[in-house]
Amino acid sequence: MDRTVIAYVIYLVVSIGLTVWVARTLSRNGRVFLADVLQGNEKLADAVNHLLVVGFYLVNLGFVALYLSGDDTIEDTRGIFEALSTKLGVVLLVLGVMHLGNVYVLNRIRRRGVMEREQVPPVPPQGWAPSAGA
């Protein structure tokens, strides 16, 4: 078997495995965060969580597929490691950027929700205050 094909197979197995692992981890731990962001609406949190996971898979697996091909043929075992380290390093960076982007957006939504909750008075108004001129 050609060394380039071996590198492709290893790249795909590791990249897809990492993508699935990160998506499951984010989904499992992000659900609690989403429930807080969405003010305890569990059904909506589950739906948003699922949509985020689907989008995460689409973007990352699409990137993994596009980044599969290489320009050079791999001549030796060292070349396999060099090609894999470059490709997997870029995939890990993309996974990290996607994760940080998701956390940033969700934190902004959470912060906005907290500010909206703080604008509502804790006790409804009970009457009119006397005016200064009266």
The helix content is over 70%
Secondary-structure element string: HHH
Rg is 24 Å
Number of strands: 0
SS-based class = mainly alpha
Distance between the termini: 95 Å
Biggest sheet record? none
* Morphology: rod-shaped
What amount of the residues lies in strands? under 5%
Counting H and I runs of at least 4 residues, what is the number of helices?
A: 3
Low-confidence stretches: none
Mean pLDDT: 83
Task: List descriptors.
134 residues, mainly alpha, 3 helices
Describe it for me?
The structure is a single chain. The protein is 77% helix and 0% strand. The chain has helices spanning 3-37, 42-66, 77-119. Helix 1 (3-37) runs antiparallel to helix 2 and helix 2 runs antiparallel to helix 3. The longest helix is centred in the C-terminal third of the chain and has 43 residues, at 77-119. The radius of gyration is 24 Å and the shape is rod-shaped. The mean pLDDT is 83.
Task: Briefly summarize what is shown.
By secondary structure, the chain is an all-alpha fold. It contains three helices and no strands.
Which helices and strands occur, and which strands form pairs?
Elements: H1 3-37, H2 42-66, H3 77-119
